[in-house]
Amino acid sequence: MNNSVTQNILRFVFLVLVQIAIFNNINFLGYINPYPYVLFIILFPIGDNKALLLALSFLLGISIDMFCNSGGMHAASCVTIAYLRPWILQSIFGLAYEYNAVKVVKAAFGQRLLYTTILVFSHHLLLFFLESFNFSDIIYILKKTLFSGAFTVLLCIILITLFSVKRR
């Protein structure tokens, strides 16, 4: 089996298990709920099949939904950011994305931070809107998105940096 395939399978399983066992139990001040499982979508290889990414994103989200009893909110959020990912990559990395020369782990810190931030905040905004499903709760949705998103971005950047240092 290809090394990339094995690595993605292990990343998928690891992130789902860590999300379920550890991060689903964190609810700090009612606003901070980290969701680092989106790291799978963030780190999915750029040149790989986009339909496969959408299918795996759905599988990732529905796996989290089954353990959270959340009725498809995570699946919808994951599929949405997986769908938006090519446009976000193209806007941040430009020509490097066109030539499939982008590796998120090896990208400049600013690009990596911007890419991760956009995907995480998009995921969280949709997730918390679907959780509330009420426009009158917009302040609560934005607060929860801001605090959980910031914590998740910080966690993702730390994890990306740790794993990239290990490989060098």
Automatic annotation (TrEMBL):
UniProt entry keywords in alphabetical sequence: Membrane, Transmembrane, Transmembrane helix
Spans traversing the lipid bilayer: 12-32, 38-64, 113-133, 145-165
Keyword Transmembrane: yes
Name under which the protein is recorded: Rod shape-determining protein MreD
Organism: Leeuwenhoekiella palythoae
